[in-house]
Each structure stands twice: as structure tokens, then as C-alpha cells.
């Protein structure tokens, strides 16, 4: 444990924004899960072993009749396919972390990815321990929020209508932050345009998956030009 206490102490201030967000959306997930009639312990277990954020929100609806195993796989893949690109960009960094790389891959959420990519390692802290501390703390916030929400949903009856919008609100905040910080806003513009187009064609109930597929196709097709623009901006 040499150096880990110091790494956790140094990493904690950087995770405070994630703490405030994950507690609330974790609570929302726990409440939604409890409303399906499941024990809060299952909500905790899911957050420990699945830890997929929006994927967990989506999974709440998988426990209803009529959802096939193939649909579960496809929907989960489409919602979390962005993590493939997250992982590819961090391969070199994770390969230097030994056995801890397996947990780092597992714990790679949107918010954790953002911190791992943008946070400057403080002086006197080993990089791998600092990054590991960020990932561990972020998941702990989510698990704690899930536990609180599961308990509240089980023992405190209240109207939870609209609580699932918490995850949507978090993604809106992430998008706005990236829009404000990014020098190249072409990917964000493609995402908004593709979503708007598919919304008009497929309607509000069916536009998400077509939007994701269209965005992926456009980004793959224009990857070379986007890379060239990014390199030019960095010169």
C-alpha cells in the first residue's frame, strides 16, 4: 500500500465533480431498480459487477416480459460502444499498469475517461497509482449512490416519475463541457446533426440506435480528415 494513501489523497479533489454527479444519478438508478421489486442489495451488486452508467439505466427495462436476449446484447452494445474507442486511446497507458489494467479497463466510464485524459499528475505521485485511485473512487461514488437509492426506493414510498432523466441531464452537462473546451467541434456537430436527422425520420421512440449507427459510420468514414484537422490545430 506504499504510496496509495498519498495517491488517493491527491486524487480526491479531482473526483469531487464526479462525486456530486454519481451520487445523484446512482440514487436515481437505485430507486428505479427498487421500483421493479428488487432488493437494494441487487442494485449494489449490479453497480459493483456491471458499472455501466447508462447501460444500467437501460438494463432496468430488461426485466420486463417480451425483451429477448438478442435485444439485450444489441442495445447494450449500442449504448456502450463508445467505450471501445475510449479503451483504444488508453492502451499504452494501461499496458504499463500491470494487473491493475484489468480493473482500469472495467472501470472506464465517461467521467473517469475524461479525468484520466485531462488531469495533470501532481508532483510526488506515481502516475499508475494516481489513475487507479481516480477509477476506484469514482466507482465507489456510484455504488454508494445505488445503495442509498435502493434503500430509499424500498422503504420510503414516493413519486419517482421523471427520475430517470438524471442520466440524460448528466450527459447534457458532459456535452456542454466538451463543447466549451474543444478546439475541434466537428464530432459534436456531427452527433447533433445525426441525432436531429434520425429524430425526424424515425421519431422520438426509435431514433437512438439509428443515430448511433449513423454517427459511427460518419466518424469512421471521415476519420482521416478529422485526424488531419486535429493535428493542424495542435501545431
Automatic annotation (TrEMBL):
Protein name per UniProt: Branched-chain amino acid transporter AzlC
Cellular compartment(s): Cell membrane
Domain of life: Bacteria
Amino-acid biosynthesis recorded as keyword: no
Source organism of this protein record: Claveliimonas bilis
Location, primary (coarse class): membrane
Keywords: Cell membrane, Membrane, Transmembrane, Transmembrane helix, Transport
Sequence similarity: Belongs to the AzlC family.
InterPro entries documented for this protein: Brnchd-chn_aa_trnsp_permease (IPR011606)
Residue runs in coiled coils: none
Pfam families: AzlC
Transmembrane regions listed in the UniProt entry: 12-33, 40-60, 66-91, 130-156, 192-221
Membrane topology of this protein: Multi-pass membrane protein
Claim: Mitochondrion is one of the keywords in the record: no
